[in-house]
Structures are given as structure tokens and as C-alpha cells.
Amino acid sequence: xxxxxxxxxxxxxxxxxxxxxxxxxxxxxxxxxxxxxxxxxxxxxxxxxxxxxxxxxxxxxxxxxxxxxxxxxxxxxxxxxxxx
Length: 84
What we know:
Elements: E1 2-4, E2 9-12, E3 14-17, H1 18-31, H2 33-37, E4 45-48, H3 53-66, H4 69-72, E5 74-78
Parallel strand pairs: 3-4
Antiparallel strand pairs: 1-2, 2-5
């Protein structure tokens, strides 16, 4: 997911629900991954309680309104930046 501001700056994150994280950890119990499902991690991750785009948009709107997007998402730089 990308958040693009009016000035062209972009921020990125991967959004998952608690249920999906639980499913992946349970899967680890069966595969032996992540110490048999004892932990889960992913880069630039944001976990939301409720599924669906509207719920995720509410979360992103709140992160932007509070400024917390700077902690929860990773900066990609301005549009057109080849290094992002």
C-alpha cells in the first residue's frame, strides 16, 4: 500500500489483519517455520484489527492525521525517484 501526499512524497507499508497473522503463525506450527509458529515478522508491516479496504483507509487516515505514518510506514521519496 502506498500513501502519496500532495507534494509527491510517497510512503509504503504492507497491511495485514490479526486473523491473517494468526493463520500464518498457526501454519508455522505445522511447517516448523519461525520456531514452530512462535513468532511472526515482516518488513514495513502494519497490522489492523478489521479486514477490508474501508477499515484500512480509516487506519491510514488516522496515521496521517497524527503523524504516526512516519513510524508505521517506510519513506519512498518523491514520485519519480528512481531509488525508491
